[in-house]
Amino acid sequence: MDGAPRRSRGIVRAIVAGVILVGIPALVIATGSAQPPAAPRSIVGRVFGFLGNQQFALLFLVVTGGQLLGRLQWRGIGLGTTGATLILALETSVWALAGEGIRFEIATFASTVFFNFFMFAIGMKVGPQFVSGMRRNGGKFIAIAVLIPGLSFLLTWLLHGWFHFAPGQAPGILSGANTATPGLGAAQTAYLTDPTGKPEDLQVVLGNLSTSFAFSYAITMVLFVVLMKLLPRLFRRDASAEARQYLEVTVGAGAPLPGEAEAFLVGTEPVATRAYAVEGVEFAGHALGELRAALPLVAVERVSRAGRLIPVTDGATLQPGDAVALYATVPRLIEVAPRVGHEVDAPALRETARQTVDLVLDGRMEGRKLIELATGIGHGVYLSAVFRAGEAVPFGPEMVVERGDVLRVSASRERIERLEQEAGTVVRPSFATDVVTLGIGLALGALLGAITVPLGPVKITLGPSVGLLLVGIALSAVRTRRPQLGGPFPEPARKLLEDLGLCVFVAVLGLTSGAGVLQTLLGGGVVKIIVAALIVGLGPPLVAWVVGLYLLKMNSALLLGAVAGGSASAAGLNAGQEASGSTVPAIAYPVAFAIGNVLLTLLSYLAAIFF
Length: 611
What we know:
Elements: H1 3-31, H2 43-53, H3 55-70, H4 80-100, H5 108-163, H6 169-177, H7 181-193, H8 199-234, H9 239-251, E1 271-277, H10 288-294, E2 299-305, E3 308-310, E4 323-329, H11 330-340, H12 347-350, E5 354-361, H13 370-375, E6 382-388, E7 391-393, E8 406-412, H14 413-422, E9 424-427, H15 435-449, E10 452-455, E11 458-461, H16 463-481, H17 491-512, H18 514-523, H19 526-551, H20 556-566, H21 570-580, H22 585-610
Antiparallel strand pairs: 1-4, 2-3, 2-4, 5-8, 5-9, 6-7, 6-8, 10-11
């Protein structure tokens, strides 16, 4: 019955996607002029002029539009929010400039800030898995990181001999097709330190460099995002399933590690609180201290006598007719219920506010067994996981705890407070974000990225984005061992930094790249640049995917991250995460990005010298 509406929606989505993909060339052709008009000539022009003076509104209108367009799919395929935001920003920029003579200018600092937010947020997510990922697959990550830049350079050299690019275009294509901004700077350095010909010739070369870079960057960034989403399907690999399998093998299928985003998302626990009338002789007439010793894994949470709650202390004695709320696992409650009495409906007695927290043990508990804790300060506390040195470990009643062990427990607020006083530090879930930790992490990452290593005539730096990624990884990895370090950093706050950071970054990039794209389209030679950008930007990642999949036998989710890193594409990383439904690709990304970025910088410098 709903076949026709579905077909209609599919047709509408296909039309929208087609309009998006061909919009830039169509707009340029429609203008029919290489020179944009000197002043706005229509109502649309006046709107663009107004938005040009209201950069904040313009930026977030584009981000919002990109989010909506990114949700459109045709036959299960869509650009995603990142690609759609970039395309919408580019079309808006070109339309304003080609049709109305309006150039959007947005401070690059805004782009830098939001992109750095994105990279730091990714690091804070993947740190615990990054360490294990490097131990298992570090050599494979490096192989992919070397393969992609090397093959890109070889293809650029071959295409230069075939197409006879104008001076400056080849290094621009190499760096732009790999979205390697440091490569653009290295090529520019090569031309400025060893200029040939007249000053005006140098300006032409630098113009060719920047224009070919901008156009190659825009084309391949969008299509690379699409490629990253299509690769698992084209090769019939379930990246989502392989991501889950990888996490089960490396961090276990149990509870998330301390400090991770999902640490306190415990779901349904096999424990319950039920109310019973005290009738059996094993309970009536006995002190609560005796019951705790006899039944260490069944806790009396509350006692009601004649409709009033009485203090729950070891010396309190139960009487026939009392009502008690017992807390334990469901099998234990079923076992002990006949010995207590019949179950009663007493919501006020049964309902107690509970918390799930991470307890970091101090030296007072060292050397004691878990069963000893259960009969003492841990009575009435449900233990769901034990972590040691940042890894989940199996546990049982005879396990001996050590200083620094992290116990994930659920209990009433009163029992949690007692644990905090007598056993160690309690880390609670929080909706607040520790801005001090965030600020220090961002500052340290930026300073790390600013460190410069001279390598001959080229100066190599990690850049602030990679520095922030590494600091985020280090901080989140340390927090798995010491979750009390750095204060709360809740998942909603981290996710906001990740999503908003990347979308604003690509929106600024698109809105400020219209002039370069327009110049290339109207200046001739655009077909050569498009063909070269597609080959250089998409060919090596495809080859690396095949090599990683069949020769290196890599997990497809990890391989997505390695391919994105070797291509220096943060947007590709985001697309890989969307394709796999997890952050597993980000485990492979940092190493591949660092190596690939350095190689692309050096190779762009060499391309400027020899091409």
